[in-house]
Design a protein that fits this description.
Length: 180
Amino acid sequence: MVGDFGKFINEKRKGRGQGGSDVLLRDLAAAMGGMSVSYLSDIIKGRRNPPEKKLLDIMAEVLKLDDDEREEMYNLAGQERDEVAPDLPEYIMDESIPHVRTALRTAKKAGLGDEFWNAVNTGAKRGKIDWEKTVNASKSENVQSGALGEVIKKAEAKGLGDAFWKKILEEMDGDNTDGE
């Protein structure tokens, strides 16, 4: 998916500048702390990796991205860098919610894919998880799916802490929630 991030940014530049004009690369580069226009152009053309989260946040502000667009930008940046979306590591590594990491590892070991995480995500949106549906969600080979990122983002946005992840672990792995 090399270049998808750049295509996304290039598309979002259209009509989002002053008076409905396009956001110019030089204006975007200037807002990003004086990054060179050629360097930014290389990112947009897929010749360089997307920048770090701090600069992505600046891009999002200049391009006036809404929450969904910002999440898509983070997902594309992570995919091109072959990393977790850059808005997730801080939450995943939060010491106050260690069961997040254990839940992710347990799901990975169990081969749980997008259908499982979609069921968790759907339940998190409603504020109630249908554990039977979630646990029985069919397995998929794609554990690094978009639904996983959505679950983490929704859990973080709703302030769901360690108890949420512990419950997921209990449902995935019986009563074994002691970690690795």
